[in-house]
Amino acid sequence: MARKRDFLSVDDLAPSELLTLLDKADEFKARPEDAAERIAGRQVLLIFEKPSTRTRVSFEVAVTSMGGHAIVLRSDELQLGRGETVQDTARVLSGYADAIVLRTFGQDRLEMFAEAADVPVVNALSDFSHPCQALADLQTIREQKGALEGVAVAYLGDGNNVAHSLMFAGAKAGMEVRIASPPGYEPSAQVAERSSLIGAETGGRTTVTNVVAEAASGADVLYTDVWASMGQESESGERAEVLAHYRLDTDAVNLAKDDVIVMHCLPAHRDEEIAADVLDGPRSVVWDQAANRLHTQKALLAWLLD
Ligand code: CP
Ligand code: NVA
User: Fold this and answer.
1) Fewer CB within 10 Å of terminal CB in the chain, N or C?
2) What residue owns the CA closest to ligand 1's atom 7?
3) Domains of the chain
4) Beta strands in the chain (DSSP E)
């Protein structure tokens, strides 16, 4: 029997698989009826060890609108919250569910869970990566720009989970991804190295800089995310100081191309990582980006469960 597929990182996908998923997401967006009954009768378990609005609701809606059944649980409702091991939990739940979607802390926890599970496991965000977000990001960029290859995305701010998945996805799609972060807040060097290696095959390019202008000048897309991710709340004050010069504001927009689009995975903090007038302004595509979570996750579920 073929080993089940998981989706723990964008790097789990070959470049062609990524593009196939994006095509499928476009199809499901244009013709939702094509997705109906695609996972009829399948049980999808969603477990959240951190809060979620978009991921949680878009997955639940995707599953039910494809004819499946979604069970959504917070980890404190499970014995997991009382110390039952990740491995035992994964093994037991594999007996009930056809796929498990997990939002958690360490990527190692997610990997242990997936290793012990007999059914596909999806990363609904870890401290390291947010691959489902990257699928919606690329669908949105392709809709707006008509292509992915050669499109320059500048991500300003914390080199976090969202940045990591954007780097992998951009490299797979032959894009130019430029990250501008303050010293000490850069993305993982391994992710930058791996993205450059992928880019050598696809024509993609990854750069990491401490200088906003180096990333933002001539960019097609400007992107940012919160300065303090879930679990880093105690560092909020310090991060706000260090990251203040990396705000996605009008100055950054003026450095980019005239037709730049502005993205944010949300939730946003107006006038912290992004200026309110930019988030709510004409260049912002954040609402389309959030809506596309539904379509890309439908494509992912069809791919994993068809
Ligand atoms: N962007 C995103 O994943 O949002 P949630 O935390 O609300 O799921
Ligand atoms: N980097 C953020 C993303 C939220 C969707 C976090 O991990 O909290």
Assistant:
1) N
2) 53
3) 10-129+293-305 (3.40.50.1370), 133-289 (3.40.50.1370)
4) 43-48, 69-74, 99-103, 121-123, 152-156, 176-180, 205-209, 221-224, 261-264
